[in-house]
Every structure is written in structure tokens, then in C-alpha cells.
């Protein structure tokens, strides 16, 4: 928030933000995450988000917290990657798959996470692919690693821009 700017009141008390736990490959993504956090502060809006302290989620939450607003992280008890089957009849899900592939290309989704999405044009092919699916895990953060991040022992970012 700029010095001398006045607080604007919003009709929202809080906003839930969904964004990546990765930073992406372009600095514009990181800049926009920080700008969003500062805009929430300027409008007196608290943040509800996925609870991560890394990537774009970490940047938004840090900016809101540093600005004196409340930050509420909601973290599911277990995160278990499961295959997702898409019955892609007549290419119905092609746009969604292209969107996901673009997210991989831009660094928001890891290539191994992309692999949980299984698609096929017919029910028989889809069921066969799902039955043959073998998960591949890139890496999983240990509980102690995550807890250390929550205590502030993680990478820091300069959000004073």
C-alpha cells in the first residue's frame, strides 16, 4: 500500500483466493500476486486461501499479512493424488486439457501432476486406461518440512515493491 493512500471500504469482509503453490515462470505472475495482496489490504479485505506458504499463495498471503489484515489458511488433512478420468467424447474436454497443458508449460502444474488426468474418447478405453494407471510422484514434502515453513523457516520474498 502506498504511503498517503487512504483505506477504501469494500462490500466484502474477506475473499477466498485460489492460486498456485508454484511461482510460475514469469515474474508478472509473482508481481500480480503481490499486487492482489496489497489491493486486498487497501480495501480492508481479509484473505482466505489454501494455506500454503510457497509460490503465489505464499506471496499473496504474505502481502496481506504484512499489511495487517487477517489471513486464514485452509489446508486439507490429506492430499492424495488420485487419477481423474475424463470421458472425452467428440473432443469435449480438449479445451480443458489444453488449459492444463498450458499451466504445465507456464510452471503452475508439475508434469507429474498432469499425469493424473486420464482421458479417452470411449468408455471402454477410459476404463482400461484407469485400470492401468500407475501414479508417479515427483516429490512430497514431509510433515516436518511443512511445519518448518509455517514457523517462518522457509524461503523469503521481497514484497515491498
From TrEMBL:
It catalyses: 9-ribosyl-trans-zeatin 5'-phosphate + H2O = trans-zeatin + D-ribose 5-phosphate; N(6)-(dimethylallyl)adenosine 5'-phosphate + H2O = N(6)-dimethylallyladenine + D-ribose 5-phosphate. One of its GO terms (cellular component) is cytosol. GO terms for biological process: cytokinin biosynthetic process. Pfam families: LDcluster4 (PF18306), Lysine_decarbox (PF03641). One of its GO terms (molecular function) is hydrolase activity, hydrolyzing N-glycosyl compounds. InterPro entries: LDcluster4 (IPR041164), LOG_fam (IPR031100). Its EC number is 3.2.2.n1. It is an enzyme of class 3 (hydrolase). It comes from the Eukaryota. Keywords: Cytokinin biosynthesis. PANTHER family: CYTOKININ RIBOSIDE 5'-MONOPHOSPHATE PHOSPHORIBOHYDROLASE LOG6-RELATED, LOG FAMILY PROTEIN YJL055W. Cytokinin-activating enzyme working in the direct activation pathway. Phosphoribohydrolase that converts inactive cytokinin nucleotides to the biologically active free-base forms. Belongs to the LOG family. This is cytokinin riboside 5'-monophosphate phosphoribohydrolase. It comes from Quercus suber. The gene is LOG3_3.
Amino acid at each position: 500500500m502506498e504511503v498517503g493512500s487512504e483505506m477504501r471500504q469494500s462490500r466484502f469482509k474477506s475473499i477466498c483466493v485460489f492460486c498456485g503453490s508454484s511461482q510460475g515462470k514469469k515474474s508478472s505472475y509473482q508481481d500480480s500476486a503481490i499486487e492482489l495482496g496489497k489491493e486486498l489490504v487497501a480495501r480492508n479485505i481479509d484473505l482466505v486461501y489454501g494455506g500454503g506458504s510457497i509460490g503465489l499463495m505464499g506471496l499473496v498471503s504474505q502481502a496481506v499479512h504484512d499489511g495487517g489484515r487477517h489471513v486464514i489458511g485452509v489446508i486439507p488433512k490429506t492430499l492424495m493424488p488420485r487419477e481423474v478420468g475424463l470421458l472425452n467424447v467428440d473432443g469435449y474436454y480438449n479445451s480443458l486439457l489444453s488449459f492444463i497443458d498450458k499451466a504445465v508449460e507456464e510452471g503452475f502444474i508439475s508434469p507429474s501432476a498432469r499425469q493424473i488426468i486420464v482421458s479417452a474418447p470411449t468408455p471402454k478405453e477410459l476404463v482400461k486406461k484407469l485400470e492401468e494407471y500407475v501414479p508417479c510422484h515427483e516429490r512430497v514434502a514431509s510433515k516436518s518440512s511443512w511445519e518448518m515453513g509455517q514457523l517462518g523457516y522457509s524461503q523469503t520474498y521481497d514484497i515491498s515493491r
